[in-house]
Amino acid sequence: xxxxxxxxxxxxxxxxxxxxxxxxxxxxxxxxxxxxxxxxxxxxxxxxxxxxxxxxxxxxxxxxxxxxxxxxxxxxxxxxxxxxxxxxxxxxxxxxxxxxxxxxxxxxxxxxxxxxxxxxxxxxxxxxxxxxxxxxxxxxxxxxxxxxxxxxxxxxxxxxxxxxxxxxxxxxxxxxxxxxxxxxxxxxxxxxxxxxxxxxxxxxxxxxxxxxxxxxxxxxxxxxxxxxxxxxxxxxxxxxxxxxxxxxxxxxxxxxxxxxxxxxxxxxxxxxxxxxxxxxxxxxxxxxxxxxxxxxxxxxxxxxxxxxxxxxxxxxxxxxxxxxxxxxxxxxxxxxxxxxxxxxxxxxxxxxxxxxxxxxxxxxxxxxxxxxxxxxxxxxxxxxxxxxxxxxxxxxxxxxxxxxxxxxxxxxxxxxxxxxxxxxxxxxxxxxxxxxxxxxxxxxxxxxxxxxxxxxxxxxxxxxxxxxxxxxxxxxxxx
Length: 479
Hints:
Elements: H1 5-8, H2 12-19, H3 32-42, H4 46-61, H5 73-80, E1 84-85, H6 89-92, H7 94-101, H8 112-131, H9 137-162, E2 165-166, H10 173-176, E3 181-182, H11 184-201, E4 207-208, E5 211-212, H12 222-235, H13 239-250, E6 272-276, H14 287-292, E7 308-309, H15 311-315, H16 322-326, E8 328-333, E9 336-341, E10 355-359, H17 360-373, H18 383-393, H19 404-418, H20 425-432, H21 436-446, H22 462-467
Antiparallel strand pairs: 1-7, 2-3, 4-5, 6-10, 8-9
Domain SusD-like N-terminal: 104-234
Family: Belongs to the SusD family.
Main location: membrane
């Protein structure tokens, strides 16, 4: 899908199927007037309008979605960084190897198509819900809040993966056809505006269907918007606001750090702020389990899936860290031990698993970093106390860091361990803290590539630059 006229003459079949909750987005071109009629029909009642929004989650969590599985952000950005080793580049296809060696193809769309498909449906929802007279006030506010939250989430990943990106905020193809790339500052300003709107529109209760009040956290609420806003402020180096938003989540009392590491990634975990539910047809709890965990203990020399953890990551765990025991799996082939992420499991017994998007541990780490940057290093209600809260559930002693530089180093290490193979955190952390060039200059050649500092961001797909001359390619890539 492109940003040009073809992609913004909306997906007639896709919208109808979304309206009944399937999450399918197969495209059939129609004229814009008909598209507007379909939108009005889809948002005429609470149930159908809600299905359009919940269909987004079904699409995102599918094995073709950008959030999970073999082509998801966790796998590919983990490949790009120093988290995952690709043992089967020839078998698993070129995309994994391109990320592993940081040598990207301008002909590849990578995440782009999925991002803009999801963004278009967000804009359809915002326009349709706003114009609808058939929705209850509670449902209308919740759906608007969810759509703005999702638009912010997708733009957050788009701007961190591609840099400057077109900022499409409507379904008007005549406008979207000619959009140029908005600056990162403009995109972040829109992300913040959307999240503030989402905070004001949604309450703290979770919705299921058209009813408020459920123990499931499968749809975002006000606190999910707050948690994402805390992350956005951290990336913007707005330390005071990052601390304030993270504190609003932590002090609310709805969430708690999960002391039982085996329960962290289940649908009943105490620290889930927002997750995506999925039931895989091959009996996996999540597509991340399918992507990362070997099907069998293979007799061959190498793993049969490219989800093996890098030696540097495995060796970075401290002695006695419970996360090493609970979240890292092992298998042996021909006398060699391989390690893989075991946060998500195959066929988990007991409580079903859910793909965590936002969880409380990250909020403690956000607040710790913000407090350290503000000079609040040790003592009660400090960076130290926040970091120790994370270390405690891993059965580790308190941090020994007592000055700003040491504390920031300790927080970066804790983020690497706590958030490994989740949502590209490691890659984005290396980029935002200006550590990426130092690491990749050494690491990329070891992985069979050559590091180019321009490759902090992916290339804009060739098709986009050809269809819309206002979209310019990122430096370091040639069309």
